[in-house]
Amino acid sequence: MASERYELNMSMKCVKYMIFVISITFAVVAAMLLSMAVAIGNLFDDFQNFIDSHFFVPPNLLIAIGIILLVIALFGCVGALKESTAMINIYGALLLIVFVLQLAAAITAFVLRGQVSMMVRQKIFDSMGDYKQQDGYRNPIDTLQNTLECCGVDGFSDWAQFLPSDGTVMEYPETCCAAPPVNGECMPREYGCYSRLSWLISQGSVLIATGTVAVAFVQVLGAVCAFMLASAIRRAKTLRATRRWHLQQSLGIMTKPIETQYTGMEKSEANVDPDKYLPTSPSVN
């Protein structure tokens, strides 16, 4: 019994400290995921005119997952230190729920990555086509070309079909110039915007997918350890209760007060026969 109790306590301590370490690790990883998701979300916001709205779902979902993981990590630390079976079970269940959400975010990011090429090309062409007619479109395309240091879709020659030269108007906007124009002429940038923008969006989606998958499999380990700890805590509490009961029985201590009207001694004394000899009667000489 003593060796069994010792092994149980040692295994419970090992799992408890493992849960505590895993929870601290989750808190650090959650902070990293949160910062990465915010950075990718801000990057997408800078080019929101060239990105469909459903591309913002993975980074927003990752931000929510990061916040939830921070709360779960705190919950797991408190539950492990207090050895609370309920808190540990809830901790493991929440990890599994977040695991499902992370898989959904990773799958969504991988699926959207395959749609980047067609979306970016079409969005840039649409913005270039509206560049001359609507002033509102000039800011996005100029911002894109300035930020990524690019010109056109595949190159500066793409502007010829949208801004034809008539001797006074350049064939491409001023933001295509690698240096400030001189006398209306400038050296256009070498690279097109399509390759650079599609690479940024694709890399953002890959980071979201790989980051969530890596953390998700660690969460499975955390959930398994949590359920193991909850089982160990239940066994330890049951063993302690059993030992306490045996100790009380050996010392003659009963857990509930005994009603006197049901004891044999009290009943026999109440109905004693005066003519009947009992061991307690005085001797008759």
From TrEMBL:
Alphabetical list of InterPro entries matching this protein: Tetraspanin/Peripherin, Tetraspanin_animals, Tetraspanin_EC2_sf
Topology in the lipid bilayer is annotated as: Multi-pass membrane protein
Question: CDD domains under this entry?
Answer: tetraspanin_LEL
Q: Which SUPFAM superfamilies match?
A: Tetraspanin
Where is composition skewed (Basic and acidic residues) in this entry? Answer: 266-276
Has the keyword Transmembrane been applied to this entry? yes
Q: Where is this protein localized, as stated in its record?
A: Membrane
Please indicate if the UniProt record lists Nucleotide-binding as a keyword: no
Spell out where the chain crosses the membrane.
20-41, 61-81, 88-112, 206-230
Q: Which residue ranges does the record annotate as region Disordered? A: 266-285
Q: Which GO terms describe its cellular component?
A: plasma membrane
Keywords (A to Z) from UniProt: Glycoprotein, Membrane, Transmembrane, Transmembrane helix
What family is this protein classified in?
Answer: Belongs to the tetraspanin (TM4SF) family.
**Protein name according to UniProt:** Tetraspanin
